[in-house]
Amino acid sequence: MPFRSDWSDELCPIRRSLDVLGDGWVLLIIRDVLHGRGRFDTLRDNLGISEAVLSRRLRAMVEAGLLERVDYDDGGRTRQGYAATEAAAELLPVLQQLAIWGERHTPTPSGGGHMALIHEGCGRKTTRGETCSHCGEALVPEQMSWDKPWHGRRDRLVAAGELRTAR
């Protein structure tokens, strides 16, 4: 059963985009996969999503060309995880602008802290999603880190096609 109308044949590119990206789980899954967390169990645990919902979303995202299945070694056993395609990697500016917007326009919960987007190319914090506000260089996942004080760490993103095998 579809969640809403099918907009895949619409002339409006925003409607067509929402046809693929309109489910809230999609951008959260892409966020985690761009952080290299493309193992099924890691996605499930990090997102707090049921296995059934996650399986459906991953299958749809592979079919839509946002994710690709990649093999990894799990202690001598080959397993499959998920990596971002170029199409998903091109959503980095959207994700970063959502983070910037959220920092500006939503209250930070108690115990949180402000997330910083770090362009590793110049080592500086950026306040824009597509190009570095310090050096002007285009931002790509493999040159970005997200500093998350509530986790007490800085997470480096990965390039399209990459998966971190360590948990």
TrEMBL record:
**A Pfam family that the UniProt record links to this protein:** HxlR
Recall the GO molecular function terms of this protein's record.
Answer: DNA binding
Q: What keywords is this UniProt entry annotated with?
A: DNA-binding, Transcription, Transcription regulation
HTH hxlR-type domain boundaries:
12-110
InterPro entries cross-referenced by the UniProt entry: ArsR-like_HTH, HTH_HxlR, WH-like_DNA-bd_sf, WH_DNA-bd_sf
What's this protein's name? Answer: HxlR family transcriptional regulator
- Please name the source species: Janibacter hoylei PVAS-1
